[in-house]
Amino acid sequence: MSSIELQQPTATGSNKNGDHESQSQMLSPGHKRGATLTGLIIAGWGWLTNLIVYLIEEFNVKSIDATQISNVVNGSINLIPIIGAVLADSFLGSFHVVSISSFFSLLGIIALTLTATLSHLRPQHCGTGSTLCHAPSKLQLAVLYTGIALASIGLGVVRFTLASLGANQFDSPEDQGVFFNWFFFIFYSACVVSSLGIVYVEDSISWGLGFGMCAAFNFLGLVIFFLGNRFYRHDKPQGSPYTSLARVIVAAIRKRNVLVSSESKYYYHEINDGANKAIAATPKRSFRFLNRAALITEGDISSDGSIAKPWNISSVQQVEDLKTLIRILPLWASTVFLATPIVIQTNMTILQALAMDRHLGPNFKIPAGSITVVVLISSAIFIALFDQFLYSTWQSLTGRSLTPLQRIGAGHVFNILSMAISALVESKRLNVAHDNHLQDQQGGAAAVVPMLALWLFPQLIVVGMGEAFHFPGNVSLYYQEFPVSMKSTATSMISIVIGVAFYVSTAVVDLIRNVTGWLPDDINDGRLDNVYWTFVVLGLLNYGYFLLCAKFYKYQNLEQEAEVNTQI
């Protein structure tokens, strides 16, 4: 595969003299998209990070119920982006989807702010140790859940649809890859600011003020987004790409008895299968059964050259687009099992922190729920470092850019290393707990072990380094390889991975608890280190599976774009 270094001409056409002008024009909307992302993520993370505490303290929800509500909300937020992707790709375009979802988010956060500021929209506070707690009324729950639902839809849809809109402003895969690096850098940085600043205001000053700040950031991000409208290159939806993919399957089944030909003249070619995309002359030999969908048979084409039976024939490029999705699914599956240990590690690290000394000096104690902010900080820092130093050094030494699959592979390695460090740290913590006879404590909660929670930082830093590789790498891979008509779907794939991993992790933890005694309520009496070692082994197996998939995977759109570039 040749190195992709030349930039394609823009959709509106460009020349050497106009390159600097077009790049300077992109600078302004780039800054506006960054400001928009910052505002919306600070707003979204501000209410989401502290949702469990808000439900318990202000709505008298029991802790387990609050956790279950938070689980559903988090899982839904990571699965919702596919809905926004379908709307953006098929009907509305990315700009309108971001606008609408941002407005939904604003309405939802305003509703949450009202529940925090108006006393009749929340139940009376429970007294300390009181068993006479008033449950929220139906009206109070209706306003609360409406606010959460609207805010969840907005946060879930806007993140990756905004990424797709941003990447659409660039032509070369290399520039798009750089964009995704900085997209995630801003994303993680905004999460850190929100998790520390907004959460502090909510806990220490006022829930109403904290949620009000979230609403203000959301409004500011939306205003900045609209101000940049005239600079954006807008994508034009061309109907549902999913219908075209379904037609390929139906047409192939209907023509299952037709002999496959190797001559281009027997296949149907559309005049325009997408801007700046090379159109395949003859279907490739892989998945040959699907090639029948593009074979022209009697009655398929009208006399004017248009399709007479839409569900009986597809273009060659539509067939190849479906093949690309089929090829990429095994890689996507490996990412699910890459993300699952991260989700489990996040929850278990909080339990470990609760059972460790979290003091920094005599007067400050790290909140257990904030310990995982280290991952966000690590990811943000290393994304910037990798983009500025590692990738450029690699290209100067090898003459090639680091490919998305290579970056994802590096993420696998760091993730496995993080699990191993977690196992070693937990083993040390358990030894300290046993030496001090802190197991089998009454009441279910684990006793605090005389070991600093700072021991948890190395594993969190390493997993952040892994995320700095594989999250931008995955988004870049999907965006570059997916069909042109499915770019929003491409950027939402990583969010779907996280959503699926969230539910898979729940099932895995239940399985471990039912089969082994490693995860009792008191982790000082358990073997959490064995859980981590199990994921080290599973991670190695998944890494081997990934390497096998990557070895046989051939870049599709990247190769086509390279061919176009060499002809310019």
UniProtKB/TrEMBL annotation:
Biased composition (Polar residues): 1-16
Superkingdom, natural source: Eukaryota
One term under GO cellular component: membrane
One GO MF term: transmembrane transporter activity
Membrane-spanning ranges: 35-56, 68-88, 95-119, 139-158, 179-201, 207-228, 325-344, 364-386, 445-469, 490-512, 532-550
Pfam family, one: PTR2
GO BP terms: oligopeptide transport
Start and end residues of each stretch annotated as Disordered: 1-31
Keywords: Membrane, Transmembrane, Transmembrane helix
Cellular compartment(s): Membrane
Keyword set includes Lipid biosynthesis: no
Membrane-topology annotation of the record: Multi-pass membrane protein
Keyword DNA-binding belongs to the record: no
UniProt family annotation: Belongs to the major facilitator superfamily. Proton-dependent oligopeptide transporter (POT/PTR) (TC 2.A.17) family.
Protein's recorded name: Protein NRT1/ PTR FAMILY 2.7-like
